[in-house]
Design a protein that fits this description.
Order of helices and strands: HHHHHH
Number of strands: 0
Strand content: under 5%
Structural class: mainly alpha
Distance between the termini: 28 Å
Shape: elongated
Low-confidence stretches: none
Number of domains: 1
Number of helices: 6
Mean pLDDT: 95
Radius of gyration: 17 Å
Length: 149
């Protein structure tokens, strides 16, 4: 069971990175109605992957690995979790924006998409992807027993 949960945890992490990358690529091109629909689907992928990552990760910490006491007394784990939560908060703005664009399309309207909005969305998603680097570093540190206090 431990191996299955480790696999699901990694699968969700890679799914999250892939979905964020798809969003970033779609925001580089022309935002047609089809591209906006793809953005909305990619954002659903971000949300599902993030939820799965959190649930499976917490299940591993509480039930399948070294136990919650170990992880919650490890600054690398706390840093990893804090960064994950920061990324989750950052993702609210793109999600709200993509939902608004999708609703406009459903009403038969073309959403107003300004250059400033696009810049902010790209910057946010870049930041989310950049946060993956220290998250992976913290994970590697935890796996080596680094970070306990």
């Amino acid at each position: 069971m431990t191996t299955l949960f480790a696999f699901l945890h990694h699968l969700a992490a890679f799914g999250l990175i892939a979905a964020l990358t798809v969003e970033l690529v779609l925001l580089q091109g022309e935002l047609t109605a089809a591209a906006i629909r793809r953005l909305a689907r990619a954002d659903i992928g971000v949300g599902v992957s993030a939820m799965l990552l959190l649930v499976v990760g917490l299940a591993r910490a509480f039930h399948f690995e070294k136990g919650a006491a170990y992880y919650f007394h490890n600054w690398a784990f706390i840093g990893k979790l804090a960064l994950f939560l920061a990324v989750a908060l950052l993702s609210i703005h793109p999600t709200v924006t993509f939902i608004a664009w999708s609703r406009a399309l459903k009403r038969g309207q073309t959403p107003a998409i300004g250059a400033d909005t696009l810049r902010r969305l790209r910057r946010t998603i870049h930041t989310e992807l950049a946060a993956v680097v220290p998250i992976v570093l913290f994970a590697a540190m935890m796996a080596r027993g680094i970070g306990s206090f």
